[in-house]
Amino acid sequence: MKKLLALLLVFMLTFSLAACAKDEPVTETQETTAAPTTEAAKTYTAEEVVQIYEVRKALTLAIDRTLLVEQITRAGQLPATGFVPNGLKDSTGADFRATGGDYGIATDGSAIDEAKQLLADAGFPNGDNFPTITILYNTSEGHKAIAEAIQEMWKQNLNINVEIANQEWAVFQDTRHQGNFQVARAGWIGDYEDPMTFLDLWTSYSGNNDAQWKVKKYDDIIEASKLATGTDRDALLYEAEQMIMDDLIVLPIYYYTHTVAVKEDVKDWYTSTLGHFYFGNVSTPDGTLQWNIGSEPKTIDPALNSAVDGGNLINNTYEGLMRKDDEGIKEAMAESYTISEDGLVYTFTIRDAKWADGQPVKAQDFEYAWKRALDPAVAAEYGFQMFYIKGAQEYYEGTGALEDVMIKALDDKTFEVTLNAPTPYFLDLTTFYTFMPVRQDMVEKDPEGWASNPETAIGNGPFKLSEYKTGDRIVLVPNENYWKADQTKLTQIDAMMIVDQSTALTAYEAGELDIIDSFPVSEIPRLIAEDPTFQIMPYVGTYYYIFNVGIDEMN
């Protein structure tokens, strides 16, 4: 352990924070969908070995999470022992994580002997004949520091060889989606404040299920939970997480916190516990805001985006039916709404609002945008978020017709949505970027590139796209046609693409940036002690590794 501690002191590298107690242990007779224990005589490839359940559990138990958060990340994170993070409630008001428990995962690495035995049971006593596996992460000194620490823990505790490899963000996302990895870094920030935002990630139809784990029983549980209410729904959601943790498709590492530094003269800024920044009310002395978003977004198309960086830009250039602020969920493009007595039909009245080019925002814009996100040809990763809507899943999966999707513009001002079952957080969902309206005429001018072209990226939010300089910055200016334009005080936002956290912090401390939320780990103790603008805020998210388990019951 001394060797590891010494190594960790060297790992005081930069770290990107985001983009994001069970009392009963898992029993030895747990049922999993993983492959059975293997025979020692066989020679395994790196891809095959992570598909062995005992190997995944050994790797999970051979990590000291407490040491990682205290010596590496050092920003108040909590060691993770399940997938759903702290802060989300079940129907009784109980914290889901506290009730769900720890699944027998010790946070301090005290289960090393059990991990060694599991590896031996899998046919690799003392790590003998274990192939070299690779941890893949997106380029970041922080992710690298964690990977190096885990690499050393697995070597020291299990006597196995591990390589680490990094890729730039967009390439990394594609590699993970395609399943070209053995173990990969991942992080998930909630899209809304309900445990489902973490659990439906692992359905076979989720565009973000990169573990290559497709299990019919799991899909059935999630679908049943969408029709259930109260404690019946709670029981299904707890069962769903139990399946994830029984198969160990994920290796939980820690629960996120959101570290942010904002200059004192930046007034009225807001970020939610889901990490969504909103600048519609912000003011600065000179009217400009220098904001670092880190990596260049893969896309800023509301239907196609699946990351926090792109989502924050969308959140300031588009506006959905509802918007969330520090006071809760409020009407935005919806001037008002009604909900039927059975909780199935939502009818929204669209307010008098305009797009950035002066055209009126219509109910038809929402109908087009939502159905586009469900279009199988568009292949939106977040299309599954609309499966609460009647006919949506069938159309998305190619078994239903577009006309049977219950998303309808009754006229220019009236938008009606019919759900499969009452969904208490449906209004919360409508604040999310996948549910933002887009203009059909703009999309069809350039289906691949419209969202990053100022001439076609016509939004309805407080700001509009002015410039997109690849690899450098995205410039936003006020949308003079926004329905609350009189409240917009900034004259320009420069969203900078500074990937290196040390460079970004230097720019912040030199007065060249106003907002950053990614920091070198080695600097966090100093920032906590000396910088009053540095804050550690709540964040609903989990940092974890995923295994490429290769379980596909659908095919």
UniProtKB/TrEMBL annotation:
Q: Is Signal one of the keywords?
A: yes
The answer to keyword Signal applying to this record is yes
Q: Which Pfam families match?
A: SBP_bac_5
| Span of domain Solute-binding protein family | 46-209, 329-550
Q: Which residues form the signal peptide?
A: 1-21
Superkingdom in the source lineage: Bacteria
The protein's UniProt keywords, in alphabetical order, are: Signal
- PROSITE patterns with a match to the protein in the record: PROKAR_LIPOPROTEIN
State the protein's name.
Answer: ABC transporter substrate-binding protein
What organism does this protein naturally occur in?
Fusibacter bizertensis
